[in-house]
Amino acid sequence: MGGRVGILLKIFTFVCVVFGIALIVATWFFFMRPLTLDAWFSRFALGAAGLNRVHTEGTGGRLTWFEGGRGDTTLVLLHGEGDQAGTWARVTMPLVERYRVIIPDLSGHGDSDPAEGPIGVDQVLAGVEAILDASCEDQRVVLVGNSLGARVAFLTALERPDQVERIVALNGGPLRLDDPMVNVFPSNREEAQKTMEGLMGPSAKSIPDTVLDDIVRRAKTGQAARLEATADRMGAFFLDDRLGEIETPVDLIWGSADQLYPVEYAQRLKEGLPAARLTTLPDCGHVPQRECPIIMVEALLQILDQGPPEAGLTVPSQTNPEMQEAP
Question: What's the CATH number where 104 sits?
Answer without folding.
Answer: 3.40.50.1820
